[in-house]
Amino acid sequence: MADQTHGAVDSLLGLLSSAIKDEARLLGGVQGDIQFIKDEMESMNGFLLHLTKTDTPHDDQVRAWMKQVRDIAYIAQDIIELYKRDLRPPGSGLWALVRHVPVYLRTMPARHRLATKISELKVRVRDVGERRQRYGVTVPDSAALKPTLVDQDGKTDEKREDFLRALEDDHNREAPCPSFSTAIAMLPCGLASEAGSDIQGILEKCLPDHVDSMKMLLRALYAYPYGTKDELQKLLKKLTHRSANVKWEVMVFCYGKLSTHYKSCLQYLTAFLQEIRISRTSLVRRWVAEGLVAKYEGAQPMEEAGERCFNELVFRGFICPENPGATGLKIKSCKLDDSVGKFIMRISESENFVAGALPTHLRHQVEIRKIVQRQPPPEKPWPRNIWDDLCIRVPRKQLDMKDIDDSTAADGGKLHPMDDMVNLLKSLPKEYRLNVLDLGGCKGLKKRYLKSICEVLSLKYLCLRNTDVSRLPRQINNLWKLETLDIRHTVVPPADTEHIFLPNLKHFLAGQIIRQAGDKTESFRTVRMPRKIGKSTEILRHVEISRGEVDLERIGHQKQLRKMGVVLDGSGDNIKHLLRTITKLSECLRSLSVWITPSDKAGDEGVTLNSEDSIVAAFSPPKQLESLNIRFFNSGVPSWIRGLENLSKITLRDTQVTREGMRTLGELQGLRCLRLRHGSLTENSITLDKGEFKNLRFLLIDQVSIITAQDGAAPKLEKIVWTFDRMEITQDTISGINHLHSLKELELHGEWNDPGGHMKQAIAGHPNRPSITGTPVQTRLSGPPCA
């Protein structure tokens, strides 16, 4: 509980410091109150920092006081943020100041009400501080303090990879009772020699029944080895008891080696115990929205700090990676082991003031997720009198179901899950701050429910992905603190987002690829670019560019934009403005997705994404670009991707890449994932030449009939995914597969037959014996190959 409270106060102190800097805009008396609150909260934070370091359990008095501090920190943050919002500067210059006068006068009553709340808050903060002294809540004795733990770098480096490989090799080589000798010898700071006997003693207690526990312990010692000899001796002593729960004691030890912020992030996973899989990006953004992630030097943006935390929890063994992603660089999704889930549930409950219950913010997240996962009750047919009345006034062929109010739909007498959601939101205390609302996958999400959700002004994260929401209410602009809005895979009309203005929005996610049944063509459905966006946008994908230069000029001013995805007409003017926008973002852009539709203008047939074709002076490619996704008819490979050392993932559609273009791709040293979708190649075959694709791990090819690999090509290629309609395997279908020395898996999608056993022979002759996913049909296929 000290960890959670310390994080809440940390977040508040940053806001207070920012508010004090704007002293010229503070009403009389408010500045002194805010300074007093800041000083008091700093003192409380110092005390909390001591509590997070102590080895002794917190008594009821301490826990009660910590709960009061955490509650008041949340209340204070909301009040200060509202006050700062109403004091937004008018801009520069005399005219801006004059224009701001009506706003200033109009908001004066609200500003004075907030000033009164700040004055009342000052009294409450003083009372909480005095209450600690009145009830004898004291600073822990220095002898009981643990060593300070700081956030680790959480990045996958070669040394860590070597250690993990040694750990797995020890397990597999020495099963069923491994000694982990190689991994123990790799422990830093001389632990193998200094505390070797203690580690061996713990090893004997863990094996053979608790191999995973021993692996988790060794990971913790590798990640944070400082001051562990005494702790290892204490752990060994606990394990010698006949009734000791080995898995629990080892997990408690490893949990203790996490920093305050990492513990908070781990506890937050209690909200996902019922999930089959957990999206990495969604989890990280929720951590950031909840204020659980700590800032660290050089980390911009905060999501990078969240990624560090995720990577560290994976390395420590608390999170199990499920989908490593195509490049192998980032995990796409993860899951929780049952034992870890039970552990963090017990830890979270033990740190809450109410025995046997989760902390309030975790409990509400669990309740919300249960509501979202419920299936809505079947709707009754429309009452005949309502239907007949509508049909009289509106011809049946023109009747739109939106003409009927949501509330008239009968639901069989059962309460709709979203009604329960609205009731839950209304029951929350005014001072409670709900930061995250994840409605992903929810059905029956009507506009009236969204209007109620838009009354929760504290929201920072709102996910409507994969819901059946059909409209966005204008009240969504009330969510002025919103940082993430996810409306991917919905049918929200394009125009609904034009008038959205969310000044603090960092992540705007929209759109979906539409594939027609039995048709190879694809289209992209998304919403239009908002006419107003804040200056802190980091992710904007995908939006439709409907106003050409105006929209692209607005995007070009987003100096923190890391990921951009746009859908636009492929006219020469649009491409020219797009390249200019990319130039403006060349220092910050890491992911670029461009979905270009054919232009109707004469003379635009030969336009490509090459800067020389669009006559753009001083074009500068994005130097930090890691991912590139292009759909552009007959555009080929942009020549400016040469020299982009960080480019690791490329997806192409309808680009008609020539053999020369393939050579350009093959020269990219950092390329790890290549997806060649429908229409991406001019030929019906692909050749991997010697010396090309030196670091490629994953290759996806679509509608190609022949793959040829020369000796020395793609030496690190591990997986090929091959998609086609129908194909008969011949000796030339996949020639030189034995030259792909690292190949582990061949995944086939489509109807195929191998009457001559050529595929089986090729796999049998490969040193890795790669697996084949996909079952061949038993009869000879008719029709043209790879139709």
Question: What is shown here, in short?
Answer:
With 787 residues, this protein is of the alpha/beta class. The chain contains 24 helices and 22 strands. The chain starts with a helix and ends in a 14-residue tail after the last strand.
How would you characterize the overall build of this protein?
This protein has 4 domains: 2-144; 158-350, no CATH class; 493-644; 683-787. It contains 24 helices and 22 strands. The protein has a 16-stranded mixed sheet that branches. A 3-stranded antiparallel sheet has the order 1-3-2. α1 (2-21) packs antiparallel against α2 (30-53), α9 (196-206) packs parallel to α11 and α11 (229-239) runs antiparallel to α12 (246-256). The protein has 787 residues and is of the alpha/beta class. The longest helix is centred in the N-terminal third of the chain and has 27 residues, at 60-86. The model is unreliable at 390-412 and 779-787 (pLDDT under 50). The chain is globular, with a radius of gyration of 30 Å.
Low-confidence stretches: 390-412, 779-787
Number of strands: 22
Total helices: the number is 24
Strand content bin = 5-15%
Oligomer: single chain
Shape: globular
Distance between the termini: 62 Å
Total count of domains: 4
SS-based class:
alpha/beta
Gyration radius over CA? 30 Å
Mean pLDDT: 81
Level of helix content?
Answer: 25-40%
Biggest sheet features? 16 strands, mixed
